[in-house]
Design a protein that fits this description.
single chain, 247 residues, alpha/beta, Rossmann fold, 7-stranded parallel sheet, 8 helices, 7 strands, 48% helix, binds NADP nicotinamide-adenine-dinucleotide phosphate
Length: 247
């Protein structure tokens, strides 16, 4: 028996990286998983892998910066699976401009994808979860949401703001809905590849008492904790999953 048997979970940004690994973890635990992203070939691969292991999954192609796409995610999930029990707002983009250089266009896009989409999807699932009397929202922040990184002003700002959104939603959506965030450190994904070569990754390993970077599944199992009753008295929390780095 799986710990998410009978549950319906939406995971945004699950065509790669930690969203994809979380989709595998949730499906192994019995959830019906709706994954989202823009890349249809990768979405199909994730769904096929889950189905070939005996799980249940579907995908919605959606751009998190597009309002209609966000409506489509919830509408198609309800049409396919009848409800939503878990929303994992995980999609994110890395913006690497500094405060003096960033264009307003880049700033707005980062806010839409990393922050506003989480608000809009939460607004749409909350009535469904409230009506059921139970639900869970998880946001993917970052350790760059607790201290600034040079040259990533929109990323850092959006992730700091996501912490505030997590706490505000937790306060406003209880008692039926619990809302928490995972703040990953360096996790092996395409995003990590894009920020540094071997030297950067070696530096990140050195900063961790565990002397390594994390794996996507280690975010998936943290998300599983928030998604199950193992965390039934936990809401409004920001959980660092970062190998113990102190920055
Ligand atoms: N990796 C790390 O070290 C690290 C550390 C801290 C926080 N994070 C956070 O972890 C989350 C997942 O990132 P990851 O590391 O797993 O990176 P990733 O492998 O690059 O995955 C990013 C996911 O987000 C989706 N996405 C990006 N922009 C999108 C858009 N405009 N519309 C729809 N989907 C979009 C991508 O899907 P498509 O390409 O199919 O659109 C992909 O599925 C992000 O919120 C990121 O900020 C990562």
């Amino acid at each position: 028996m799986g710990r998410l048997d009978g549950k319906v979970a939406i995971i945004t940004g699950a065509t790669s990286g930690m969203g994809r690994d979380t989709a595998y973890v949730f499906a192994e635990e019995g959830a019906k998983v709706m994954i989202t992203g823009r890349n249809e070939a990768r979405a199909k691969e994730v769904v096929e892998k889950i189905k070939s292991s005996g799980g249940e999954a579907s995908y919605v192609i959606a751009d998190m910066a597009d309002r209609q796409s966000l409506d489509k995610i919830i509408d198609e999930t309800v049409e396919k699976y009848g409800t939503v029990d878990i929303l994992f707002n995980n999609a994110g983009l890395l913006s690497t401009s500094s405060s003096m250089d960033i264009s307003l266009e880049e700033w707005d896009k980062a806010m839409q994808v990393n922050l506003t989409s989480a608000l809009i999807l939460s607004q749409k699932v909350a009535p469904i979860m409230k009506k059921k009397g139970k639900g869970c929202i998880i946001n993917t922040g970052s350790i760059a949401g607790t201290s600034a990184r040079w040259g990533a002003v929109a990323y850092c700002t959006s992730k700091h703001a996501l912490n505030g959104l997590t706490k505000a939603l937790a306060r406003e959506l209880g008692p039926e809905i619990r809302v928490n965030a995972i703040l990953p450190g360096a996790i092996v994904t395409a995003m990590l590849d894009s920020v540094g070569g071997e030297d950067a990754v070696a530096g990140m390993k050195e900063m961790s008492p565990l002397k390594r970077v994390g794996q996507g599944r280690e975010i998936g199992t943290a998300a599983l904790f928030f998604a199950t009753d193992d965390s039934s008295f936990v809401t409004g929390q920001l959980l660092r999953v970062d190998g113990g780095v102190d920055c």
